[in-house]
Each structure stands twice: as structure tokens, then as C-alpha cells.
Design brief:
alpha+beta; Protein Transport Mog1p, Chain A; 20-stranded antiparallel sheet; two-stranded antiparallel ribbon; 19 helices; 22 strands
């Protein structure tokens, strides 16, 4: 029998692959504004999710309320959905006549078509009234519906063509059924999504996750929501959308793929209008090999970017003035005030002193650890002027400090024919000494003069040509790193931004910590069958083989902006970060709830003590007699209104019962006041 059952399951899985498309955007209506879909989660994400599920399962008997709901969502919905095609789409939001949200979730139903409908009914039983569930027929398909009391929201769910369908609203369900039946065009068949996918070279036959946004439709939805809430669009809304560049973006698409245990990410923004606002960040000159030659071949990480800060600031100011003139005026006034304070204008004097190339990196030869050795190498168009401004900043800072002994002291060092400037804070144990040095048309900034000096060695040793692999180790750059070269060649270019990280080194440093945490989780979840698993955490030599260097590029071509990356930790979870967060929240909820309950009890006891003190003060003025009611104490100002309300009281009324007719000579064991009883866990007594 087990063999027969296994064969049946295998046959079902094979038929499911044929019946349910890998890309459920083909079942989502074309007018979908926002879409998230996957064929399945990456293998390591699923492993992480299973561990999170076992953690929750091991504590499920102690759960109630919100953690129970999280447990059901994670164990009974997300876990099975992680291994099959799923699509989630938002069609519309309207607030004109009440609130109406049209959204849909479609998932491969699995071997038990009634599994997901039963889970939904269970969630409603946990959070609402299952008696309100009613049958519903849409397009000859049987559904169930649940109208959330005192809200305009209605959930509709059912099964059609081997897919579970859950929607907000009947219209969303009808649109999905029509799309599945071929009666209306699908999102996957839309020209816009097909174009976006072609730009990122999306492959839909393997393991992938995608996110799509019809930006202009989203803008229309936001317009409607804002207009309904504010009784019309604010004057600044349309100019803001246009001048920031949002109106120029037709759509945005993100695609995540897993190929041979390596992650590939591509993001495309389809630009069909003027390049302005935020989009000018990518309308820059491309980086050259010479720009990257300053980075060592064994860098921990680096990020290089071309951006003209002076022009970018002018664009930000222009957008601000167009969208909100009064805000633009305040920005200009603030900039003028800063110019008076520092003696120079950041916008007119400082930013134009820089070129458009910026390279930030850290490497072993910098002498730091991951970030402490980091230096920023920037182009400068006026070295002498930049030096003068930096010196003026120090002088102004000292003037602001007055005659205190904690002065910012500027010092200099000579190194390899270059003058390194650095500053220390006098009479304080400050562990950094910010430094800078001008080398030709570049300025190097670092946290220490030593790290600046190390970067000077690189600039002096770097060849002026593009000859392959220099013999001098000090002259070897990131361009001589074979993994970086190979990854860069496979990514879009020429790039205005390039990133790199030695993920293998970073993962090696994190491995001992992650190993301990995952072992602790496996022990915690052992009652649910969890165990230490090499699939989850292999030995380091094997884990190391799964890690690639991470390289990213960003470009702007005639169609828009493309950001791409590949490599990194092949085992690092992406989607399960959310699942793990939910699991940890669910498991820690009992402790958090208990701590919150104790805090509320302590606050309530403080109220009762204040009432007791008020009674004593009253007795001193009334021959030793206590008041007839708590109202007497309130009138005399011996307690406040707030002291009559407990944070544990859900009614918001007076939370304490007072027993009158007593005095200072009454039996001290008598109860003078007590808090109302809200549950079976006792109460506070005075």
C-alpha cells in the first residue's frame, strides 16, 4: 500500500504540473495593478520555512489568539504554498462609496482540493463568526463567502481548475474565473509585462519569484484614495508625481531566479516619459575601468557610483519648488543660513568641487575589519578649494566650541610624497581620526590616516594602462579578480553603479553564529520532529562551495533603468525571513503577553496605592473617617481621573470597587478597594 500511495502521489504531482501553469500571472486579470508570484520558493528558503514551521508546531499547544493565527497561516497555508505555483494580485481600491478592495490569491490546490478552503474556515473560526459563512455561485463555480461584520470587506474562496482561489470581493473572483476560462486577457499576456520580462531575460520554466507593478495604474488608485480621503487632490499631488519622475515610469518588474544554486536578480523600470526627478540618479556617465582600479583585488566589499551631486541637488531643489513652492523657499532659506554659519555654501561652493565618480571600499590591506578600514575615493575638480573648505569647517567647529578643552585639532602627516590631513578631538578618547588626502584629481577620505595611506599606495601603484594582471601585488585591482570579471561580464552594462561583496568571507564570519542559532532552533523544535540537518546547515567546506561572490550593476538604456545582481550566499533565505519572523513572534507571544500583563497589573496596583494614600489624607481632615466614595477623593483633588482606570479594563469605565463605611481603626485585614475581575487570573486588592 505505501508503494501504491507513493505512485499515486507522484502521478498527481506530474499531472498537476501539466494542469497548473508555472506562472500564475496567466490566470490573473490584465488590469492587475500589483502582482507577486512564484513557481516555488528556492530550495533553501523552503528548508528554512520547514524549520520555522516545526518551531511553531513544537509550541502550538501553548498558543492562543494571534500566535495561533500565525501558526495556522505558516503551517497550513504558507508551507504548502511554498512548494507550488502561487499568484497574488491587487486589482483596485475604491473609497468613494464606502471601501472596496479587489484582490486575489491563486494557488495550486494540491492533492487535497479542500485543504485550503478548510484552513480558511478555521481561520474565520479563530477570528470571527463561522456561522456567517454563506455559499455563493460565480460564473457557475461554487464559492463560499464571509462578510466581515461592521466592515465593507467580503472574502470569497473556492476551487477551480485545480487552483484554490481566495479573493476580496465578488468582482475579483469573477475576473479571475473569466481569465482562467480564457474569456478575458491575462496579465501574463499583456504587452507591458511581456516587454518587462524580455528586458530582464526572465525564465519561467524553473524556480522563480516575480514582482510586477503597473505604476500608472497604481498612481490612479492612489489618486482615488487620496481624493476620497481629502475630498479632492491636494495642489501639490500632481506636480509631485510628475516632477519626481514617477509619471514617467510605465511599470516596474523584479525577477528572482535560482540557477545552479546561484541567485540571479533583475529589476527593470520601464521609462516612457521625461527623465527627471529620481530618474536622474541613473542618467549619469558610465564607470570606467580606471575608476575601479583603486579597489584591491581581495576587497571585502566595494561600491562604485557615478553621480553628479551638484546637478542632483539642483534637480531636487527644482522638484521641490515645482511641487511645493513654499517648501522650496524654506529649503533655500535653510541653505543660506547654513552658508552663514559655515562661511561657505554647501550647494554653490562645496558640491561643485567634486567630480561625478565615488568609490567606497574596504579590504584586508586597509588594516581594518569589514568597515573600519573603509575609504571613500572621490574625484575632485578643485583640490586647493576643497582643502580650504575642509579647513574652514574645522575652524568654524572650534569657534562654536568656544574656550572648551575639547577642541577639534587638525594635524598633518607626510606619506610617499603626499600630505595627509587628519583631525582628533582633544582631551577625549575618540577612537577615530577622520583623515583625507588629495592625490592628483582624487580625494581620499577615511576614518584613520593609516587607511588613507594604504589607499595612497594603491593609487600610486596602479598602472596607467589596461594591461592584464600586473606583476606587483600592490597594483592588483578588482579588475584582476577572475570571479568579479566573470560576473561583471554577464551583467548589463556599461554601468553607472557597480557593487561587489566577497560573500564567501562574510558567510565564513557569520557561520559560527548561524550554526549556534540553528542548532538552538533544532533543539527547541525537537518535540515536533526537528533535527540537525546537513541540508539546513552543512559542514563549512560544503557550505563554502555554495557561496559565490556577489556582483551588481545598474544602468539606464533607451527603455529605462535596469538593476541586476548575481551570486552571494546560495543558501541565504530571501522569503523565509518573513516566515521566520512570524514564527519567532508566535513562539515569543506567550512570554511577551505575560510581561505585558504583569506591567498592567503593576500599574493598576499603583492606582490602588494612590487611592489608599488619598483615603489617609481624607481621614486626617475628617476625624479618622474614610470617604463615602471615590468621587469624594476626586473632588478634593486627592486622586486624579486617570487613577480610576486600569489598563486591564476593556470597558473604559471606573475600574475599582470601593467599600465605604470604614475608618483608620478598622481591621487592617479588611478590603478597602479592589479591581474588577476581568478573567480567571485573579485581580488586585487594597
Amino acid at each position: 500500500m505505501p508503494v501504491v500511495a507513493g505512485l499515486l502521489i507522484a502521478a498527481w504531482a506530474e499531472s498537476l504540473q501539466a494542469a497548473v501553469p508555472n506562472d500564475l500571472a496567466s490566470y490573473m486579470p490584465e488590469e492587475t495593478a500589483v502582482y507577486v508570484g512564484w513557481s516555488a520558493w528556492p530550495s533553501q528558503d523552503r528548508v528554512q520555512l520547514e524549520l520555522a514551521a516545526k518551531l511553531l508546531e513544537s509550541t502550538s499547544e501553548r498558543q492562543e489568539g494571534p500566535p495561533r493565527v500565525i501558526s495556522v497561516i505558516l503551517l497550513d497555508l504558507l508551507l504548502p504554498m511554498s512548494n507550488a505555483p502561487v499568484g497574488i494580485g491587487l486589482q483596485n481600491i475604491e473609497l468613494n462609496d464606502g471601501a472596496e478592495v479587489s484582490a486575489a490569491l491563486i494557488a495550486a490546490a494540491g492533492p487535497d482540493p479542500q485543504h485550503y478552503p478548510q484552513v480558511v474556515r478555521g481561520l474565520i473560526a479563530e477570528c470571527g463568526d463561522p456561522e456567517l459563512i454563506q455559499p455563493l455561485t460565480i460564473k457557475n463555480v461554487q464559492f463560499q463567502q464571509y462578510a466581515v461584520p461592521e466592515t465593507p470587506f467580503k472574502f470569497v474562496w473556492g476551487v477551480h481548475k485545480d487552483c484554490f482561489i481566495l479573493t476580496l470581493g465578488e468582482s475579483a473572483a469573477a475576473a479571475v474565473i473569466d481569465t482562467m476560462n480564457g474569456a478575458r486577457p491575462s496579465l501574463a499576456a499583456s504587452e507591458e509585462m511581456k516587454f518587462d520580462r524580455s528586458k530582464v531575460q526572465a525564465k519561467l520554466d524553473g524556480t522563480f519569484t516575480c514582482l510586477y507593478g503597473d505604476v500608472q495604474r497604481v498612481v490612479d488608485i492612489v489618486k482615488g484614495v487620496v481624493a476620497a480621503k481629502a475630498k479632492g487632490l491636494p495642489e501639490w499631488f500632481i506636480p509631485l508625481i510628475e516632477e519626481t519622475g514617477i509619471a514617467s515610469v510605465r511599470s516596474k518588474y523584479q525577477h528572482f531566479e535560482e540557477r545552479d544554486d546561484e541567485r540571479y536578480v533583475r529589476i527593470f523600470a520601464h521609462v516612457t516619459g521625461p527623465v527627471r526627478g529620481l530618474l536622474t540618479l541613473w542618467k549619469q556617465a558610465p564607470l570606467t575601468d580606471e575608476d575601479l582600479r583603486v579597489v584591491p583585488d581581495d576587497a571585502y566589499w566595494m561600491y562604485a557610483r557615478n553621480v553628479d551631486l551638484a546637478a542632483l541637488w539642483q534637480e531636487v531643489l527644482r522638484v521641490t519648488k515645482e511641487a511645493a513652492p513654499e517648501v522650496g523657499a524654506r529649503v533655500e532659506a535653510g541653505e543660506a543660513a547654513l552658508a552663514g554659519m559655515f562661511g561657505f555654501s554647501i550647494v554653490r561652493d562645496l558640491l561643485p568641487k567634486f567630480g561625478d565618480t565615488w568609490v567606497l571600499f574596504d579590504a584586508p590591506q586597509q588594516g581594518g575589519f569589514l568597515i573600519t578600514g573603509a575609504v571613500l575615493v572621490a574625484e575632485t575638480t578643485d583640490a586647493a578649494g576643497l582643502n580650504a573648505i575642509l579647513s574652514a569647517v574645522i575652524a568654524r567647529t572650534n569657534a562654536a566650541l568656544g574656550g572648551t578643552e575639547n577642541r577639534v585639532v587638525s594635524k598633518e602627516l607626510e606619506y610617499a610624497g603626499h600630505r595627509i590631513h587628519y583631525v582628533v578631538v582633544s582631551a577625549l578618547p575618540v577612537p577615530v581620526a577622520p583623515a583625507w588626502c588629495i592625490v592628483g584629481q582624487r580625494v581620499i577620505f577615511g576614518l584613520y590616516p593609516q587607511t588613507v595611506a594604504a589607499a595612497i599606495r594603491r593609487l600610486d601603484a596602479a598602472p596607467a594602462t589596461t594591461e592584464p594582471a600586473p606583476a606587483t601585488p600592490a597594483a592588483r585591482s578588482i579588475l584582476d579578480n577572475p570571479e568579479f570579471r566573470a560576473a561583471r561580464a554577464s551583467l548589463p552594462g556599461p554601468a553607472v553603479g557597480i557593487g561587489y561583496a566577497d560573500a564567501r568571507l562574510l558567510w565564513r564570519l557569520a557561520y559560527p553564529l548561524v550554526l549556534g542559532v540553528r542548532t538552538a532552533f533544532a533543539s527547541w523544535a525537537e518535540p515536533a520532529g526537528a533535527a540537525i540537518d546537513f541540508a539546513t546547515m552543512p559542514p563549512w567546506p560544503e557550505a563554502r562551495e555554495l557561496v559565490r561572490v556577489h556582483v551588481s550593476t545598474s544602468i539606464m538604456d533607451e527603455d529605462g533603468v535596469i538593476l541586476a545582481s548575481q551570486g552571494g550566499d546560495g543558501r541565504g533565505p530571501v522569503m523565509t525571513r518573513f516566515a521566520n519572523a512570524g514564527a519567532l513572534f508566535g513562539m515569543s507571544w506567550p512570554s511577551l503577553s505575560r510581561a505585558r500583563e504583569l506591567a498592567k497589573r503593576a500599574a493598576s496596583m499603583a492606582n490602588l496605592r494612590a487611592i489608599g494614600e488619598g483615603c489617609r489624607s481624607w481621614a486626617k481632615q475628617h476625624g479618622g473617617q474614610f470617604p463615602d466614595s471615590l468621587g469624594d477623593l476626586l473632588v478634593e483633588g486627592l486622586i486624579t481621573e486617570k487613577m480610576l482606570h486600569s489598563r486591564r479594563d476593556p470597558t473604559g469605565g471606573v475600574s475599582y470597587i470601593y467599600i465605604p463605611g470604614q475608618n483608620e481603626k478598622s481591621d487592617p485585614r479588611n478590603v478597602l478597594a479592589f479591581e474588577r475581575l476581568y478573567d480567571d487570573k485573579g485581580t488586585n486588592v487594597l
